[in-house]
Amino acid sequence: MKIQWSGVFPAITTKFNQNDELDLKMFEKSLAAQEAGGVKGIIIGGSLGESSTISNEEKEKLVRFAVSYFKERLPVIVNVAEGATKDGVALAIAAKSWGASGLMLLPPSRYKSTAEETVTYFRTIAGATDLPILLYNNPIDYKTEITIDMFTQMVDLPSIQAVKESTRDVTNVTRMKNRFGDRFKILCGVDTLTFEELAAGADGLVAGLVCAFPKETVAIYNYIKAEKYKEALGIYRWFMPLLEFDIDPQLVQYIKLAEVYEGIGTEYVRAPRMPLAGERRARAIRTIEEALTNRPQL
User: Fold this and answer.
1) How confident is the model at residue 1 (pLDDT cuts 50, 70, 90)?
2) Contact, 96 vs 129, CB < 8 A?
3) Average pLDDT of the residues of the chain
4) Terminal CA-to-CA distance of the chain, rounded, Å?
5) Which residues are bridge partners to 103 per DSSP?
């Protein structure tokens, strides 16, 4: 299934039950809410999906379930965040056999690779699959930056098509557009920069709070692309206290709690993560409840 790298792509959370097993019934409910909200695809097994604690067998089960559910209405994208190149290649090949339509690819994990090593890692995995690839550029959290010069070394690879832009530098959108035009589609990867990066020309979003609020997230995207900036800004300002959850180290717990309020998720997380507690939890609840009280009419 061909991917149009534009619009909103949720980095979907992984639903667990109280026995630390996959909760596929709640997963299906979440998929339905995302589709009804107007997203353009989903990403499975990202950092928000607790990729560091779910097994490849669980990833396969989630991907096959989502592919079967959507029946080609929406593409399913698999996150690849491996330490060894051979493991990245193996997961990329497996993802296609599961029915995935594309990959989100991080630099090598648990090792700060050099520019040459990083580009070679990307080129090797891209050469092992014909699935379209979204690179994930997040030097703040993962310490390795994909620089514009590194992108220049990958222009010849047709499968590398887009980037999740999470450098926190809004001007990177303009720099990429100036250097490459539309060669690489740019998806904003930081919820609190949604308005700024879309207004600067980003093609879409890989979002977190969309997991709980798909309609509001899609509305912001649609308004900005229609150049209705005032309407977009009104929703964005309402959304900002919630979007701050996306840049907290416990973003998984925060967003899962918000999903519970919307009836499309569970709060169970996999150890070593623990659910929010104490004053941190109380503040999160106040933020969510205030937002729901003042929710804008779309």
Assistant:
1) confident
2) yes
3) 97
4) 31
5) 78, 133
Q: What is the CA radius of gyration of the chain?
A: 18
The C-alpha angle with vertex 102 and arms to 243 and 130, in degrees rounded to 5, equals 150
The first and second tokens of residue 111, run together, are 């090792």
Contact 130, 159 (CB under 8 A): yes
Q: Is the dihedral of CA 276, 143, 157, 174 positive or negative?
A: positive
| Domain assignment of residue 1, yes or no | no
**pLDDT exceeds 90 at position 38:** yes
Q: Which domain holds residue 223?
A: 7-293
> pLDDT digits over 158-186, tens only?
999 999 999 999 999 999 999 999 999 99
Classify residue 298: in a domain, yes or no.
no
Q: For the chain, how many structural domains are there in total?
A: 1
How far apart CA 171 and CA 298 sit, in angstroms, is 30
What is the rounded CA–CA span in Å between residue 184 and residue 162?
A: 5
Please report whether residue 244 resides in a domain. Answer: yes
State mean pLDDT over 219-235. Answer: 98
The CA distance from 37 to 136, in Å, is: 24
How much is the pTM? 0.97
Amino acid at 60: E
Residue 132 lies in a domain: yes
CATH number for the domain that contains residue 71: 3.20.20.70
**Whole-angstrom Cα distance, residue 151 to residue 180?**
9
Contact predicate 107/121, CB 8 Å: yes
Nearest to 132 by CA among 102, 169, 100: 102
